[in-house]
Design a protein that fits this description.
The chain is an alpha/beta fold. The chain is built from twelve helices and 19 strands. Strands 1, 7, 8, 9, 10, 11, 12, 13, 14, 15 and 16 form an eleven-stranded mixed beta sheet that branches. It has a four-stranded mixed beta sheet with strand order 3-4-2-5. A two-stranded antiparallel sheet has the order 6-19. The longest helix has 13 residues. The two termini are 24 Å apart.
């Protein structure tokens, strides 16, 4: 249904588009409590891609589980890759003075020479996943906090070896894909050989033994121009989670019709915002969701992006979808234990590799796309871009804590891949000459990244990665921010399943 509520905006919204305003902000230079060095304002370097650095068409990381898998790979590509070789050219370059044209086809595989001579560290064996630098001091102490919580076990399962495959042209790359029997594209950064199959998880779901309890705090989705997709809302509705969607007046008819199109009307209340087409970004609607939650007496609220596809639990090296409100309730309960946690939320699924070790949560880092916010937080949303990183940095600069959960994850669609929202209004509308043949604007995030660097030059800078501009934030200064338990808590030092059970033959959607 549509609910036209009389909730006023509690404050004017500052989009921070004026550079002078950003540079003179009170939170720009507020890290004196953390260190006393002069804060430099970095210039945005545009670094070369790994292909450009190597001078080849494509660089692909290939991971192996054991020596037998690597031996089979060597046979497939017709090359012996000994323990001293980390970079492999495909096809193998044959010396001009070779006596036999087919010399490269005669390959003898000695498994003893495939075995590395030293034990690889966790850093050396990581998948090709690069994320912002985060603090790790709490990681070793997470067991002191993760009590009366669901069981959590996530061990390191390092690869046997990882090599870098180099290809001079597209033809060699496509030939290689056929030889190893895998579908790879120009955007593929790393693979496992043989292929890491995840189909075994397709029928697995975390479900509730009994009827799930409702969320303690209201949940909001901010959406614009995406009534034809409704990705997040469809996921929540499948999980039977009631929620609000904040829309603008011109979209009301389309969104109302979509509730019936997708069969989600029973779980959705549309809230029509008192503004439209303001160009300030989603932060203004998020602040209005905040105002609405206060008006109904809530002490916290959830606010989600509209392009989140499903939610997952990480446990025993598997990322398995959960199908009710329980995962969110676990996060709510955990945050409510602490005096100084103001923002929390789940990590992106694509930043969690199933074979790597992670703590169930990380303190003092940014929270993206799905945020649980305490309503008495003094900081509100601001800025046209990167509002989530900005509000988290201001909280942490006060000495308070933001919590990111690895134990529960969100399935985020990539930036600029879903029509509507910021994709149409900002990223594709700015620097249109940089839109590539896939329809992706490689410069569409430059303003977004530069705004954050201007607002927080003490910890943020602009970098060029993966063919587009990104921001990079150093969270190390916030290691001093400790979790402070509320007085009088008496938590049982045991596991709390929250009624979750693993359904190994899930027959839902």
């Amino acid at each position: 249904m549509t609910n036209k509520v009389d909730v006023k905006e509690s404050a004017d919204y500052d989009n921070f588009l004026e550079k002078d305003v950003r540079l003179n902000d009170e939170y720009t230079m507020s890290l004196e409590k953390f260190f006393g060095d002069e804060i430099p304002v970095p210039l945005p370097p545009r670094v070369l891609s790994r292909e450009e650095r190597a001078g080849v068409y494509k660089v692909l990381y290939v991971h192996f589980r054991n020596v037998d898998d690597m031996a089979d790979f060597c046979k497939d590509i017709g090359q012996m890759i000994d323990y001293n070789t980390n970079v492999v050219n495909y096809p193998k370059v044959v010396a001009e003075n070779s006596l036999f044209d087919d010399e490269e086809d005669i390959v003898k595989i000695d498994k003893s020479l495939l075995i590395p001579r030293k034990k690889k560290t966790a850093t050396e064996s990581k998948l090709d996943i690069e994320v912002d630098e985060v603090v790790d001091d709490v990681n070793s102490k997470w067991r002191d906090h993760w009590i009366d919580m669901p069981e959590y076990e996530q061990k390191e399962a390092a690869s046997f070896r990882t090599i870098h495959m180099h290809f001079e042209n597209k033809e060699f790359y496509e030939e290689f894909a056929k030889k190893i029997g895998q579908d790879i594209t120009e955007k593929t950064n790393s693979i496992w050989y043989p292929k890491l199959y995840v189909t075994k998880n397709m029928l697995l779901r975390w479900v509730d033994e009994e009827e799930a309890k409702p969320l303690r705090h209201p949940m909001y989705i901010v959406s614009k121009g995406r009534s034809d997709t409704m990705i997040t809302s469809r996921s929540l509705s499948r999980m039977k989670i009631p929620h609000y969607i904040i829309i603008e007046p011109q979209d009301e008819k389309d969104y109302d019709a979509a509730l019936d199109t997708f069969g989600i009307r029973d779980y959705v209340t549309l809230l029509v915002a008192p503004f439209s087409n303001h160009g300030d970004g989603p932060g203004r609607a998020r602040n209005w969701a905040w105002d609405h939650s206060i008006s109904i007496g809530a002490t916290w609220h959830w606010v989600l992006d509209d392009n989140l596809a499903d939610f997952y639990r990480l446990h025993q090296n598997e990322r398995i979808r959960f199908e009710s409100s329980t995962g969110f309730r676990v996060m709510e309960d955990f945050c409510d234990r602490y005096e100084n946690v103001y923002i929390a939320g789940p990590q992106y699924r694509f930043f969690i590799a199933p074979n790597q070790a992670y703590p169930p949560f990380v303190a003092n880092t940014r929270i993206y796309s799905c945020l649980l916010i305490r309503n008495d937080c003094k900081h509100k949303w601001r800025g046209r871009y990167n509002e989530d990183t900005d509000i988290c940095l201001r909280v942490m600069k006060d000495g308070d804590v933001c919590l990111q959960f690895n134990s529960f994850m969100q399935g985020k669609m990539a930036t600029q891949t879903v029509a509507g929202g910021n994709t149409a209004e900002f990223y594709h509308a700015e620097n249109t000459e940089a839109i590539n043949e896939e329809g992706y604007n490689t410069d569409g995030t430059i303003n977004k990244s530069q705004m954050l660097a201007d607002m927080h030059p003490d910890v943020a800078r602009v970098v060029w990665r993966y063919g587009r501009w990104h921001h990079h934030v150093n969270y190390n200064p916030f290691k001093k921010n400790k979790l402070v338990l509320k007085d009088g808590l008496n938590l049982p030092k045991s596991t709390n399943t929250y009624g979750m059970i693993l359904d190994r033959n899930f027959n839902g959607q």
